[in-house]
Design a protein that fits this description.
Order of helices and strands: HHEHEHEHEHEEEEEHHHEEEHEHHHEH
Radius of gyration: 21 Å
Bound molecules: pyridoxal-5'-phosphate
Largest sheet: 7 strands, mixed
Shape: globular
Length: 398
């Protein structure tokens, strides 16, 4: 997954153009900037690559989620349905707005279970936020149907599956809004950064204003601009955007390498007894940032991870016991450990959350191992890794 592995001349050239003018901000200073608008150029190139009408670059993936929700009018007291397996950013971005995260089960796609979503809808529900974890997607058709029937916003968190597709459409472009992260460990990185994509012109205007103090961005004099709405500061800097532009030039090459490496590892495990693969919904193409497998039981998954680690296989994740990606490790959320007061609605929701049964999620997460696909492996390293993974899992007699 990590684009930092291929960091080099492309990124340096883009950053140097910014450093030469000294204009580190994306807006204004037109006389000094010698025509360089790196954030704007990234937005245009990324929208084109994702085949959508609009892209809004922001300061992080978490900010992208908050800005996307806000741009669709979601705020205090509104309920947003999200999965139990995701990065903490999902509930952070919702609670930041005073909105209420409603966590529900995942299924064998390792993403939102449409049945669990349907069961969680109330008259306060405003959005459904599938998270395409570890390179592959939720059942987007089923979720879109639910959203249509209940007049809900479908917001895709595609931070871990950038470049994947569903029925020929880029992940992130299928819902009303899609979000990406360009933090340092993502498939392409800006150092820190994020993006919202949408085909909805009104959401783009809202996002554009919300991420920059409400500025309307009309005219050539920033100080004279009006503020049609309240906003905040989630801007990206020109330096970060420049890094991203360099990475974007490598994007397809990165995806190709991921796919090839994934293919070798998946082929090596294909006929190992007891090993099955995470389900990819029909019509979906992963971005191959992770290889995800199920073991027969949670005990065997833990045993396998230990054995693989002892055999020298790094970057193998057991999310079930991970502090950042599964509800098991989120006692700060379930116990509402907040520095500042939370709204009564959020407090109530977190009380309910701590009592909620996630045995369906446990059933899948307890048995899941995920292997990060690195870009830097040469052929010998990759083949050795495939053989060691296969032999180790075979030896366990699953
Ligand atoms: C990385 C990530 C985010 C947040 O991105 P940041 O840029 O680190 O704020 C959100 N959701 C998922 C699934 C992620 O992996």
């Amino acid at each position: 997954m990590p684009g930092f592995e291929v960091f080099g001349a492309h990124e340096r050239a883009q950053v140097n153009e910014v450093l030469e003018t000294g204009v580190l901000m994306r807006y204004g200073f037109d006389g000094m900037r010698q025509g360089h608008f790196k954030a704007l150029a990234f937005e245009q190139a990324f929208a084109k690559r994702m085949d959508v009408a609009h892209c809004q670059l922001v300061s992080s993936g978490t900010a992208a989620l908050s800005v996307a929700l806000a741009s669709a009018g979601i705020g205090a007291g509104d309920e947003v349905i999200m999965p139990s397996f995701t990065f903490v950013a999902s509930f952070e971005s919702i609670m930041m707005l005073g909105a209420v995260p409603v966590l529900v089960d995942i299924d064998d796609t390792l993403t939102l279970d449409p049945k669990a979503v349907l069961a969680a809808i109330t008259d306060k529900t405003k959005a459904v936020m599938p998270v395409h974890m570890c390179g592959s997607m939720a059942d987007l058709d089923a979720l879109k149907e639910i959203c249509k029937a209940h007049h809900l916003i479908l917001l895709e968190d595609a931070c871990q599956a950038i470049g994947g597709t569903y029925k020929g459409v880029a992940l992130g472009a299928y819902g009303d809004l899609g979000c990406f992260s360009f933090d340092f460990v993502k498939t392409i990185t800006c150092g820190e950064g994020g993006a919202v994509i949408t085909n909805n012109a009104a959401y783009k205007v809202n996002a554009d204003q919300y991420q920059d103090h409400g500025h309307d961005h009309i005219g050539m004099d920033r100080g004279a601009e009006t503020h049609p709405t309240l906003g905040y500061n989630f801007r990206i800097s020109e330096l970060h955007a420049a890094v991203g532009l360099g990475q974007l030039q490598r994007f397809d090459e990165i995806l190709q390498r991921q796919k090839a490496h994934y293919g070798t590892l998946a082929a090596a495990l294909a006929d190992v007894p007891g090993v099955t693969f995470r389900r990819v919904p029909e019509g979906g193409v992963q971005n191959h940032s992770f290889l995800n497998i199920f073991l027969p039981t949670a005990e065997k998954a833990q045993q396998a991870q230990k054995a693989l680690s002892a055999a020298g296989i790094d970057a193998c994740f057991y999310w079930f016991k991970n502090n950042w990606h599964y509800i098991n490790g989120w006692e700060h959320l379930t116990q509402a450990k907040s520095i500042a007061p939370l709204t009564p609605q959020i407090q109530e929701a977190l009380k309910n959350l701590s009592a909620k049964d996630f045995s369906q999620s446990d059933y899948y997460m307890g048995r899941t191992l995920s292997f990060l696909i690195k870009l830097g492996w040469d052929e010998a390293t990759l083949n050795r890794r495939a053989q060691v993974m296969r032999d180790t899992l075979m030896d366990l007699g699953l």
